[in-house]
């Protein structure tokens, strides 16, 4: 259980922060950038939830919880030492990726195939989900970049990849099952 009695610690006043294993790194390190962007995604998703209800809101709530799992995963390097840790680090697992895929399949089966690219917009929920999609893509790019030099859980990267697809399909559903999608018209303003 996490207990936060004091919010400010002053330990980061010189520009460094502690990872999940206690090692201190600069706040601009690639690992901090990756899990910081996941935190930004979670906040962006919170804004989207202001426009959601029912099953959609339930699904977004599950994803928000997953994003905390993902942040915990990314802030804890040294995956080869997981077995020796005082407590097992939280890692994204393939079943979380599988759940996203199943939900995408269910959402997508009632949508007409796309004949054009979609401009982000339409309903307020759709516009917010498109923003979530782009932040998820940035978090994915940062995580892939990090994986080029440090250990990163492969399931974490897969989760981000599927999540951006999930947001895309959910945004179409939020636009009256795609009927209110705003379509790109190439060269329309030439």
Report the mean per-residue pLDDT as an integer: 91
Q: Give the low-pLDDT segments.
A: none
Largest sheet: 2 strands, antiparallel
User: What's the CATH architecture?
Assistant: Up-down Bundle
User: Based on the structure, what is the oligomeric state of the protein chains?
Assistant: single chain
List the strand order in the largest sheet: 1-2
Distance between the amino and carboxyl termini: 58 Å
Enumerate how many helices there are, as a single number: 5
The coarse silhouette is elongated
SSE pattern: EEHHHEHHE
Secondary-structure-based class equals mainly alpha
Strand content: 5-15%
Examine the coordinates and then state which fold CATH places here, giving the name of the CATH topology: Hypothetical Protein Ta1238, Chain: A
Number of domains: 1
Question: What are its keywords?
Answer:
190 residues, mainly alpha, Hypothetical Protein Ta1238, Chain: A, two-stranded antiparallel sheet, 53% helix, cytoplasm, transferase
């Amino acid at each position: 259980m996490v207990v936060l009695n004091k919010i400010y610690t002053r330990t980061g006043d010189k520009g460094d922060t502690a990872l999940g294993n206690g090692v201190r790194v600069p706040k601009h390190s690639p690992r901090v950038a990756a899990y910081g962007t996941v935190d930004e995604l979670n906040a962006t998703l919170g804004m989207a939830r202001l426009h959601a209800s029912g099953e959609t809101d339930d699904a977004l709530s599950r994803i928000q919880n997953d994003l905390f799992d993902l942040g915990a995963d990314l802030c804890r390097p040294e995956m080869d030492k997981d077995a020796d840790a005082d407590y097992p680090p939280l890692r994204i697992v393939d079943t979380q990726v599988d759940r996203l895929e199943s939900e995408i399949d269910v959402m997508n089966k009632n949508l007409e195939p796309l004949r054009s690219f979609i401009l982000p917009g339409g309903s307020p929920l759709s516009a917010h989900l498109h923003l979530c999609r782009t932040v998820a893509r940035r978090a994915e790019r940062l995580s892939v970049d990090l994986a080029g030099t440090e250990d990163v859980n492969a399931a974490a990267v897969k989760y981000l990849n599927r999540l951006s697809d999930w947001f895309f399909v959910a945004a179409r559903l939020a636009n009256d099952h795609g009927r209110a999608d705003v379509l790109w018209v190439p060269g329309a303003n030439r």
